């Protein structure tokens, strides 16, 4: 694997990781918001 291919793979990996983290945090906040609504 060349340096360029590895660099491209690394960028894609970080992008997927970032999107996964953002999606997970958004889902977590939504589930907390739902629990708060049920309490009131």
Short description:
The protein is an all-alpha fold and 40 residues long. It contains one helix and no strands. The model has no long low-confidence stretch (mean pLDDT 93).
Describe the structure.
- This protein has 40 residues and is an all-alpha fold.
- It has one domain (1-40).
- It has one helix and no strands.
- The chain has one helix at 3-39.
- The longest helix has 37 residues, at 3-39.
- It is rod-shaped, with a radius of gyration of 17 Å.
- The model has no long low-confidence stretch (mean pLDDT 93).
Topology:
Blueprint: H1 3-39
Q: Stretches where pLDDT falls below 50 for ≥5 residues?
A: none
Alpha-carbon Rg, integer: 17 Å
Strand content: under 5%
- How far apart the termini lie comes to 57 Å
Q: Report the principal-axis shape.
A: rod-shaped
Largest sheet: none
Helical content (DSSP H or I, runs of 4+): over 70%
Helix-strand category = mainly alpha
What letter string, H or E per element, gives the SSE order? Answer: H
Mean pLDDT: 93
Number of E strands: 0
Instruction: Note the total helix count.
Output: 1
Keywords: Membrane, Transmembrane, Transmembrane helix
List keywords for this structure.
transmembrane, 40 residues, membrane, mainly alpha
């Amino acid at each position: 694997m060349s340096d360029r291919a590895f660099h491209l793979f690394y960028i894609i990996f970080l992008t997927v990781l970032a999107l996964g983290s953002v999606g997970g945090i958004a889902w977590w906040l939504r589930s907390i918001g739902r629990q708060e609504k049920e309490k009131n």
